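Suppose you are handed a protein chain with no further information: no name, no annotation, nothing but its sequence. What can you learn? This example shows the usual starting point.
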Amino acid sequence: MGEIADQVARLERLAEEAQEALKLSERIGEEIETRIEEVEGVYGALLNLSGEFDTYIADHDYMAVERSAYELQGLVDDRSLYRTIDVVLQLITLQDGRAIPGSSIEQRMEEIRKVEASHPALTEEELDREFNRTLEQADATWRSIWDDGTWDSDTSREQHRDDHLYEARQEAVADRALRAGRVLMELCEYIAETLWSDVTGGLRTGDAERVTRALKAAAIAGDSAPKAYKLYEVKLSEQYEANPYSLGAVGEQVMAFESWVKTQDGD
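A reasonable first move is to predict its three-dimensional structure. Written in structure tokens, the prediction is:
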């Protein structure tokens, strides 16, 4: 009877230990899920930011666009976020009974020397080429419709052509600034839809390599946001110089400020 009692007691201890292990595993699982949801939240933040860019660019609110460009950079290059990812990867390896990673995500990212950058980007040269093509097409359109040899004089012909090209140029200048600004929206959407899906997908499977490479690419893309803003700022300034009123309320505010500065200089 004593041996049976000992075996029963041992089985009871094993059952208690199994229950404790199960509870611990459940707590680890809950902690993993909570932290993964925190990382997944960046996806929604990026898409929200894209919508904000759309509004700010439509309103020519360049100061808000600049703030949002740096916000985009900070969203994907966040040390506290990296620490959260480290905790998730450590908990997953612990749960799976594997060795805990010896280096942090940030260290792994620094070790990656080459990452193929495929995020949306735009240069001033590309914008200017598009701009020139637009003006050439506008001139070709005018010639195909209006240059029919029925003009009363060369003067009236050239005046009509100049007016047509002036309007085309004004529109192209505005489109160029808009195109430059929209790169910031494209960056948000690319990071969210392409790179962040890799980050969260790799995180759920404990694939540290996949997570690291996606984070590195996201950080590179995020770092390009301030540069993209600078190009937008230059092209918006050119739009202002061409037609201040095309910037709506912002253009009027800048004109009023310039007028005030001139009065101060006169004093």
